[in-house]
Amino acid sequence: MRKILQERARATRRSLLEAAACLFAQQGYAGTSVNDISARSGRTSGSVYFHYSSKEGIAQAVVREGFATWPSLVHRYDDPSVPPLERLVALSYDIARALAEDSVTRAGARLWAERHTINVELPDPFVLWTTAVTRLLAQARAGGCLAAGVRPAATARTLVRAFYGFCTLTEALEGSHALTVRLSDWWQLTLPALQQDPRAGQAPTLPAAASPPTDNCPPSHALSLGAPATGERKRTARTSERVTNCPERQ
């Protein structure tokens, strides 16, 4: 009986979190009430307060959940047989999909952007991104693939911020569906500055067609982000040019 109750409690928390995420992504923090979350989830307002104590509490949970997927996402790009810069590009496509399709991650990003209006501390979503990019750039330097003078840590900070800004502005101007299409333009400009020999390869073109959205929440016209699709690295690798001829591959 205790196990059954625990499972019900987890299911309730999840349904509340997903309902809140869709509303936060569409309407923002100020435009969403506990009653809205209750109605969307089919649960009572008392249930919201029981599991999350406050609207701030559920907002914090949404942000944490939205960015909790990054460690497992990054782990999929640990294959040492693939050149680090190629892994970096493939990872970026997964992240772009993540910033476009999943209601929880979209909500997490919008809430983080609105953090100054929320009376609770929200986690920094960029720490794990920056760490992962730093590691890939360091591996590229160790393998002789990175351009001279490119410092992994400093470059990673710049890349992550530029990439996030690019995704945010692209979505605002063209919609989330355009992210993966425009990303090839971004890499055509950015990748040659990272490569030891820019003539060794080209930035990949658009990978295989994006899968349909992973949730039933319609895309927000404001800042909206989402969850990665499985198998993206393989599709990206099959449909793109090699980004570099590393010495380690020769």
UniProtKB/TrEMBL annotation:
Residue ranges annotated as compositionally biased, kind Low complexity, are 203-214
Basic and acidic residues bias (residue ranges): 231-241
Q: Where is this region: Disordered?
A: 198-250
Q: Which PROSITE patterns match?
A: HTH_TETR_2
Q: Where is the signal peptide?
A: none
A Pfam family annotated for this chain is TetR_C_45
Q: Which domain of life is it from?
A: Bacteria
Instruction: Provide the alphabetized UniProt keywords.
Output: DNA-binding, Transcription, Transcription regulation
Q: Where is the HTH tetR-type domain?
A: 10-70
Tell me which residues form the DNA-binding region: 33-52
**What name has this protein been given in UniProt?**
ScbR family autoregulator-binding transcription factor
Query: Which organism's genome codes for this protein?
Result: Streptomyces cellulosae
